[in-house]
Amino acid sequence: MELLHDPELESFRKEIRAFIDEVLPAEMKARQRTKVQNNATIQDQQEWMRILNGHGRAVAHWPKEYGGCDWTPQQLFIFNEELYAADAPEFDWGGTHMLGPVLYTFGSEALRERFLPMIRNGETYWAQGFSEPGSGSDLASLRTSAELVGDKYIVNGQKIWTSGAAHARWGFFLVRTDKTVKPQKGISFLIIDMASPGVTVRQIPQINGEAHLCEVFLDNVEVPADQLVGEPGMGWTYAKFLLEHERTTSSFIYWSKRELERAKEIARHERVGGRRVCDDPAYRARFARVQADLIALEWSVLRVLAHEETGFPEAAAASVLKIRGSELQQEITMLQLDALGAKSLRYYEPGPEAPTPSADWAEHVPGRTTIALITRAATIYGGTKQVQKNILAKLAYGL
Amino acid sequence: MDFAKSDIQTMLLDSAERLLADSSGVEYWRERRHDPLGFDEGRWAQFAELGWLALPLPEAAGGLDGTIEDVALLNIALGKSLATEPYVSSVVLASQILRQAADRGRADALMGEIASGTLRVALAHQEPGADPLSTEAVVTVARRTADGFVLTGAKLMAADAPSAAQLILSARIEDEDGVALFLVPADADGLTVDAYPLIDGTRAADIRLTNVALSADALLIGSNRGEAVLDEAIHRAGVALMAQAVGAMEACIRICGDYARERKQFGAAIGSFQAIQHILADMFVATHQARSMLYHAIANSNRPAAERAAALSAARIVIGEAGQLVSRSGIQVHGGYGLTDEYAVSHYFRRLMSLEKQYGDLVRHTERFGDSLFA
Q1: Strand-strand pairing, A187-193 and A170-176
Q2: Disulfide check for B348: which of A351, B179, B230, B252 has CB 3.0–4.6 Å away?
Q3: What count of CB pairs under 8 Å joins A to B?
Q4: What was the pLDDT predicted at A92?
Q5: A292:B293 CB<8 A
Q6: CB atoms A399 and B280 under 8 Å
Q7: A58 close to A120: Cβ distance less than 8 angstroms
Q8: Nearest CA to B230 among B63, B101, B86?
Q9: Amino acid A212: pLDDT
Q10: Nearest alpha carbon to residue A28 among A69, A83, A79, A78
């Protein structure tokens, strides 16, 4: 074990910072900083992917043969950290971090050649069709069916909580191809063209005024059989692989670091009773605890990235990232709101452009509550916090 | 950055497992706590034989020049087994100060004695009512005389002082700025040691100095460097103590997991109840994050002083809070048995409480870290 700071990583960080500074368009950066919505616009995400792809850095974490950068885990960490710190639009995680790795690991040569370049170049936004109205935490009970008729699958069913489906040209779905076997064994992984006849998308009005999450209805949708990824009946295995492959993503570490910095700016700027919010000892102590926990989370991420031998299954360490990461996302957004006090109650219509700031209503006000409200989802999606704790009890204690 | 253990670290941990498993844990602790020193001189000699007392010391003093990571790993093992030996005060804290002393030959000789187990040295710095993270409130005074110095003052709760033959004392030299460090025999004329046990079985003492006459060579570190030297030494001691806390937590969650599998109520192991499972899951999360934060403190131990101090305080927050959560939940999982002396969890509770409050408690470290963020 040798943990002292590596000076070489600092020069890598400088190089990455300069690179982002050079290629990230100023107006895109400004939109990302001030937007009154949770995610970057799909246009910005795609345009940013194209720019990064032009420099061979769109999918840095993939194996080199598929366009990755062959960086160490620490270098990848720094790359992502700097992207968020610079207010670059986020990746389309569905494509770059979920479907991509499944495709290059299990997909046919034809599927790889067809879709990997599209993902790298941000040519489509990818919908992720996993959850169903009756299958949330109990995902294996999903009922959307895909029946093989000739060289096509006929898909029927309903998905829910599909982010950005209204703007997605393509999606990857978990569907039931065999009802006769144990639930986990009858699931397959299917790529569906969202423009196919029979696909209907309904946006769900959310707690924060946005409607990013969608319901997807599939009514006799015909899907070419060669769009089934890997083997039929292996969908559950692939979905688990995908979650395991991206064990550190659920920590939201880069996002949280950026947002905690923003909380710090707000607490320095806003004043109550003649003093800065950050000079209130109670606020400062709370901030200090969150900051310390976030540093711990960063090290926990590095440990998983380096596959540290801990004496426990690595999935247990990954559950820590998900549990603590999601809690911290919520604590950080609440630090922002509490620094704003009653100002956080003002409703702003969601959108990519921010209203013009004034002396009383600084640039950092709009958007904070919009994002804080939807961040309540962090402890629910991808396996609720309670399901994660059940998993941990099993993995770490054998209960 | 490398999380894998080196060959030397693996050997170190193997030896720790062998010795500490033989003479470890609650039974060992229960016997030792009535000893005047709170630990067994025989096992201290074994620490020396295994090279543990030489681990971080410089080669010139017969040491092994081990890294801070080596020391942390050994202390994780010591924490797991509830070791009460004054390892940190002599081998980490005092030796870190001694290696900065101007008189190298003398310092090396003293460290050589520490390495061989024949000398223990404790720091007596904290004064009644003073901020534990600052040297500003030191009022113990050293007056220069023709032969050396005369010291007068009082020190509170000097950890491990009852078993130390020599004390390192912080004092202000009259008409000088800063704080100097002196090496003083524990049996010096005019010096009293009021010893007492702490709740975790370790020992501390209040020290009173009334015109203690010292020769000139008692001055280890001059006023100009005292604060910086103390700060670094306390950082290293802090890392080692946090490592003990991490070890204690890791042992504690295993003990609680075992208990939850064995203890039956309502016709089922209590570990089958989600309410218990979620407590244990929270304990695992806290323990895992605590170890991560130990790594953070280690990684920053060669950074400039302000950065190093901020990292230490941040780590003390996470590890202190984790220690509270793990030890308190540990008792809850055990029900009434958690409050008995017979069950190990009550001993881990006491040890973790002790580790949380030494060299600045949770409140003080939270304040210092918060101030560093908005400085």
Answers
A1: antiparallel
A2: B252
A3: 159
A4: 85
A5: yes
A6: yes
A7: yes
A8: B101
A9: 95
A10: A83
Q: CB B285 to CB A279 under 8 A?
A: no
Secondary-structure class of domain A126-233 per CATH = mainly beta
Mean pLDDT for B151-158 is 98
Domains of chain B: 7-120 (1.10.540.10), 122-223 (2.40.110.10), 227-373 (1.20.140.10)
Q: Tell whether A330 is within 8 A of chain B (Cβ).
A: no
Which residues are within 8 A (CB) of B150 and not within 5 positions of it... i.e. 6 or more apart? B142, B143, B211, B212, B213, B214
B314/A292 CB distance under 8 A: yes
Q: Report the alpha-carbon angle A302-A307-A308, nearest 5.
A: 80
Closest by Cβ to B277, choosing from A2, A293, A390: A390
Task: Take residue A151 and report the two structure tokens written for it.
Answer: 């060289």
Q: In A, residues 283-302, which contact B (CB 8 Å cutoff)? A: 284-285, 287-289, 291-293, 295-300, 302
The full set of domain ranges for chain A reads 7-91, 126-233, 247-397
User: Do residues A95 and A126 touch, judged by C-beta distance below 8 A?
Assistant: yes
Site from B8, B69, B250, B289 to mutate, A interface, most A CB atoms within 10 angstroms: B289
Q: What is the ipTM of this complex?
A: 0.96
Identical fold, A126-233 and A247-397: no
pLDDT of residue A247: 80
Dihedral angle of Cα B324, B326, B332, B337, to the nearest 10 degrees: -100
What is the CATH number that goes with domain A247-397? 1.20.140.10
Strand partners, A148: A153
Residue type, B101: A
Neighbour tally for A394: CB within 10 Å = 16
Backbone conformation region of residue A180, classed left if phi is above 0, alpha if psi is from -120 to 50, else beta: alpha
| Residue in A3, A285, A396 closest to B295 by CB | A3
Closest residue of chain A to B295, computed from CA coordinates? A3
Sign of CA pseudo-dihedral A159, A160, A166, A171: negative
Among A1-15, A339-353, B9-23, B34-48, the range with the most confident prediction by mean pLDDT is A339-353
CA-based nearest residue in chain A for residue B280: A393
Residues 62-81 of A with CB under 8 A from B: 74
Query: Range with the lowest mean pLDDT among A326-340, B80-94, B123-137, B184-198?
Result: B123-137
- In sequence order, the 6+-apart residues with CB closer than 8 A to the CB of A334 are A372
Interchain CB contact of A320 with B (< 8 Å) = yes
Q: So what's the pLDDT on residue A67?
A: 95
Helix, strand, or coil here: B351?
A: helix
Encoded tokens for B205: 């003492």
Question: Does A317 lie at the interface with B, CB-CB under 8 angstroms?
Answer: yes
Kindly list the residues from chain A whose CB atom is less than 8 angstroms away from the CB atom of residue B287.
Answer: none
* Residue B140, C-beta contacts closer than 8 angstroms, at least 6 positions apart: B127, B151, B152, B153, B154, B155, B169, B170, B171, B172, B209
Residue B7 contacts A, CB cutoff 8 Å: no
Smallest Cα distance from A217 to chain B, Å: 35
pLDDT at A4: 85
pTM assigned to the model: 0.96
Q: Read off the DSSP letter of residue B64.
A: -
Residues of A in contact with B326 (CB under 8 A): none
Residue range A196-218: average pLDDT? 97
